Structures are given as structure tokens and as C-alpha cells.
Automatic annotation (TrEMBL):
Family: Belongs to the glutathione peroxidase family.
Protein keywords: Oxidoreductase, Peroxidase
Keyword set includes Membrane: no
Gene3D superfamilies documented for this protein: Glutaredoxin (3.40.30.10)
CDD domains assigned to the protein according to its UniProt record, in alphabetical order: GSH_Peroxidase
Protein name: Glutathione peroxidase
Coiled coil stretches, renumbered: none
Pfam families per UniProt: GSHPx (PF00255)
Amino acid sequence: MSLYDIPVTTGRGEETTLSEHQGKVMLIVNTASKCGFAPQFGGLQKLHEAYADQGLAVLGFPSNQFANQEPLEGEALAEHCQINHGVTFPLYAKIDVKGNGIHPLYRQLTKAAPGFLGFKNIKWNFTKFLVDRNGKVVKRFSPTVTPERIEAHIQKLL
């Protein structure tokens, strides 16, 4: 199954797929608004603003699996991220990014790009996956890698 065919839910609760992003470079990030890495929302927004017109889609998938750092949902989450971090890129509904209930999107992402020492599990919020225009997962970045450090990788794919 292609990444574009996997069902996802928007932050407004609408069922969709990532097919609207087909042909774009995607940066897929598991986010959490109360995480110590939450300032990365600003860097992700800058990437969105700088490269959306060239075909970059920054996509946030909130998860509450790490120390309950995402208590918000839906419109409240979108509003919080917009007010506090200026976020205008899409934030989808909360999902599980690890464990028995792992969302199919993250099952496929982690299989395609295992982390350090080949471990597939997501270790924390703000793990990032870079996907090329053909839907191939190109690279995985740890939470400590800031959006600014990913920019050159994005530029190569655009």
C-alpha cells in the first residue's frame, strides 16, 4: 500500500488520505504541544512558508504517547499551535505512533526508515520522516535534529 492510500483523519475529524500531497515532498512529524521540543513548531512553520510553493508539505501528526504531552485535540490543538507557534501547516487527528495500536502510516514509515541501530520504534515526539515526490521514505530524523538542519535535505528533493 502506498503512503498516499493510507486513511488518515484531519484535525477537524474528516476522513481522508495523503493523496492530496501526491507529487510533493512531505515532511511528516509526530508532534506534541506540551513537549520540550515544541519550539520546533516554529522551524517547521518556516520550512512550510519557505517551500510550500515549491512542493513541500509539512504534516503534523499529534501523539499523546510520550509522557502525555499532547492533551489537546482538534480545533483546540490547532488554535494553540497557531497562537503559540504560528502554525498554519496541517495538523491531523491524534494517532498512536508506536505499540500495538500504531497507526498504519507510522507502521509503514518506521518500517521504511528504521531509527538508530535499526530500531523501528519512535522514541519521542518530533521524530521526522522525509518523503520524496514519489512517496518513497528517504530519511528519518531524530527529535533532536531541528527543522533548520533538515532544510538542505528538503532542498535536494525539491
